[in-house]
Amino acid sequence: MMKCLYCDSENNSIDQACSVCGAPLYTKRPQLKEYVSLEDSALSFQELQRFHTYDLLVLLRLVREERSKSYNLMRAVQKAPEGIEIDKSIIEFGESEYRLYTARMKLIEGLLVDRMGYKPKRVDDKLLTALKHRMDSK
After folding, report:
1. How many folded domains does the chain comprise?
2. Which domain of life does the protein's organism represent (predicted)?
C-alpha cells in the first residue's frame, strides 16, 4: 500500500495515480535546498521545475541582482568618454551577459507565475521571511 502525497489516501501500489483524487503517486514534491546559488540559474527548465517555490524566489533575487550589475556595466561602457578605446569584445560580452540573465530571469518568473499566479515585483527579506514563516507553521 502507498499513501497519496496530496489527499493522504491509501492506494494499491500498482496504480500510477491515486484512486481517490487522481494525483500521480510516484511524483516527488519539491523540497527546500540547503543552498541556492547563481549557478543554479543555468539549469534546464525541467530541473528548475523541481525547485521549491521558496528556492525559486531566492534564485530570482540573485539573477535580478546579477542582471542589474550587467546592465549597469554595459551602460557605463556605452557612456565612456570619447577618446577612450574599449575593445569590442568587452562590449559584446557585457551585452550577452545582460541578455543571458534576462532570459534566465524570465524563465524563473514564468515558473513562479505558474505556481503563484503572479511574479513578485521585489523579492526582499520581508517576502522571504513571510513565506518561510508560513511554511514553518504548517
Report:
1. 2
2. Bacteria
